Amino acid sequence: MFGFLRQFARLLSGKVAPFEIGLGAFFGALLALTPSVAVDPGTGLAGFSVLWLMLLFVFLALRASIPVATFLIVIFELLERLFLGNLTAGFGRFLLEDVMPQSFAIGLSSAWPSAQLHTWWGFGGFLGGILLGLALALPFHALTKRKLPAWRERFGQSRAVRWTDRSLTQRIFGWWLS
After folding, report:
1. Burial group, residue 32, by CB count within 10 angstroms (0-12, 13-18, 19+)
2. E strands within the chain?
3. In 3D, which of 29, 11, 127 has the Cα closest to residue 73?
4. Residue 25: is it exposed, middle or buried by C-beta count within 10 angstroms (0-12/13-18/19+)?
5. Ranges of the chain whose pLDDT falls below 50
6. According to the model, what pLDDT value does residue 12 have?
7. How far apart are CA 72 and CA 54, in angstroms?
8. For residues 5 and 1, what is the distance between their CA atoms, to the nearest angstrom?
9. What pTM, to 2 d.p., does this model score?
10. What are the tens digits of pLDDT across the range 141-172?
């Protein structure tokens, strides 16, 4: 929770690079559309898709913007429940059954079943997440690169940002997390 507040304060004060915001947008879409649970029983790791866990690790290791990614994960999870889940499953079905050879899906299923890429939902969600993530990351990066100086000037000296940057709790967790 405190790490999220710290990231949000960094975002408002302009201490975040445009590249971090673009990565946050990319991983937000990718993590939201990639299945997080094991679709086939017994193929995941502790009930999670191994591919999703690996993407989460890479997201955290690259220090992408957590507030941007969290916002997009919430939005795309909602949209996935409404209609994107059916679209990504249909996309995966089209690719695995009509475009790719049958041996491709069989190879994915036998080589790495815990990634869930052999299912329509898993394959379509992963590739759809990559495409949607790239489509969002580039505009997010360009907009942030252009608008960042104005944001730094506008929000950098606000009371809320100064309070979160200077609070004792933030200093302790900032030291601990860095």
Report:
1. buried
2. none
3. 29
4. buried
5. 1
6. 53
7. 19
8. 6
9. 0.71
10. 888 888 776 666 666 565 555 555 555 555 55
The tokens describing 167, both together, are 């609070």
Joined tokens for residue 131: 């495409």
C-beta of residue 178 within 8 angstroms of C-beta of residue 59: no
Residue whose structure tokens are 């209609």: 83
Report the distance separating Cα 178 and Cα 169, nearest Å: 14
Residue type at position 165: D
Residue 36, φ and ψ in degrees, nearest 5: -90, -20
pLDDT of residue 171: 55
Structure tokens at 44: 């995941």
The domain tally of the chain equals 1
| Residue ranges making up the domain that contains 47 | 2-177
For 113, the token pair is 């079943």
Residues 6+ apart with CB under 8 A from 31: 52, 55, 56, 59, 69, 73, 129
